[in-house]
Amino acid sequence: MSTLVSLRNITKTYQRGPEQVKVLHGIDLDIEQGDFVALMGPSGSGKTTLLNLIGGLDSPSGGEITIEAERIDRMSAGQLSTWRSHHVGFVFQFYNLMPMLTAQKNVELPLLLTHLGAAQRKRNAEIALTLVGLADRRSHRPNELSGGQQQRVAIARAIVSDPTFLICDEPTGDLDRQSAEEILQLLQLLNREHGKTIIMVTHDPKAAEYATHTVHLDKGELVEAAPAH
């Protein structure tokens, strides 16, 4: 496998009033193509900050972020936006679905940024919904779906553009245990059978068991990076 994500001496500092708060302290981390990485650590350890930097939602205060030989830490906000649309699929804790749109139309949303025509967008959305087991729910709106089904729609939306990797921020944090396990099994399937690289923030040790590697953060420092099993 080749290195997909390379972080070198990553720092992140936020200005809060007169005070500077340093969230990340010199993080070095490599993530290989095809990995399923669980980022773990207590609240305030810097997990989501690190995830946002890898996903191009924020820029580091210092250090280098190289993804597929591209230095994204050097990109402007506009360049990052374009880069994200081509390379990153996002899955959040609270689904972030558009309530007035059907499952299919929600999944199609990222494709509106492409040159695909309406018929191909529909076809791609149907393929993604079939992959997550929701082909028969494509005409349902979010309020007609369970929490687990809404998260499946969100995952279909994340993969419909065939991104380089998936960023998942507490994807099971709002679900009951059975629904959570179904979502984790789906992510594991996407990783094992479809080769998707997945980077997931979680505080749940059971969720981390589905990953191939775990990375532990504490007080903005990398304290452990090891295979999950």
Automatic annotation (TrEMBL):
UniProt source species: Stenotrophomonas tumulicola
Q: Which family does it belong to?
A: Belongs to the ABC transporter superfamily. Macrolide exporter (TC 3.A.1.122) family.
Q: Which GO terms describe its cellular component?
A: plasma membrane; transmembrane transporter complex
Q: What is the lineage of its organism?
A: Bacteria, Pseudomonadati, Pseudomonadota, Gammaproteobacteria, Lysobacterales
Tell me which InterPro entries the record gives.
AAA+_ATPase, ABC_transporter-like_ATP-bd, ABC_transporter-like_CS, ABC_transpr_LolD-like, MacB-like_ATP-bd, P-loop_NTPase
Q: Which GO terms describe its molecular function?
A: ATP binding; ATP hydrolysis activity; transmembrane transporter activity
Q: Kindly state which keywords UniProt assigns to this record, in alphabetical order.
A: ATP-binding, Nucleotide-binding, Transport
Domain of life of the source: Bacteria
The molecule here is called ABC transporter ATP-binding protein
